[in-house]
Amino acid sequence: MSEGTKQVDVLVYKPGSMTPIPATITLPKDYHYRDLNATIGALIGPNKIEHVAVLYNGERHDLFVDEFSAINPRVAFDDPKLPDEGPQPVNEAATLIYHEASRQRGDDLTDAPKIHGVAVLCLQKVWR
After folding, report:
1. Which of 13, 27, 37, 60 suits a disulfide with 119, CB 3.0-4.6 Å?
2. Residue range of the domain that includes 85
3. Model's pTM, two decimal places?
4. How many domains does the chain have?
5. What are phi and psi of 115, to 5 degrees?
6. What are the pLDDT digits (tens) for 85-118?
7. How many angstroms separate the Cα of 62 from the Cα of each of 1, 12, 116?
8. Strand-pair category, 59-66 with 119-122
9. Three-class DSSP category at 101
10. Distance between CA 80 and CA 84 in Å, rounded?
11. Using an 8 Å Cβ cutoff, are 101 and 21 in contact?
């Protein structure tokens, strides 16, 4: 690792699997959203990343998903220039992580939203 970069351990969760794939991403030392989008987006898919703060192993972590993973963007925004695909499959493993804080509070998760598509959980804080 060079002095001008930051190594971040991540877990990549794919729909249909409860077992994450460990990986490491490299960010510039003084990174910005565009750097996160390029690096994490390469693991997630073609659209911009969306950030979700989650509780993982009792601590706050950053989870990233494709911003359009739960919808069909062309239909949702009535825009023929947007992709005509989706929603992506539900990601049960990432959804469990997404709902952890709510579960600990005893919230009813019957109609709670789910995570769709590939999700990337950062094991070090990256969202600032």
Report:
1. 13
2. 5-122
3. 0.88
4. 1
5. -85, 135
6. 777 889 999 999 999 999 999 999 999 999 998 9
7. 22, 12, 16
8. antiparallel
9. helix
10. 8
11. no
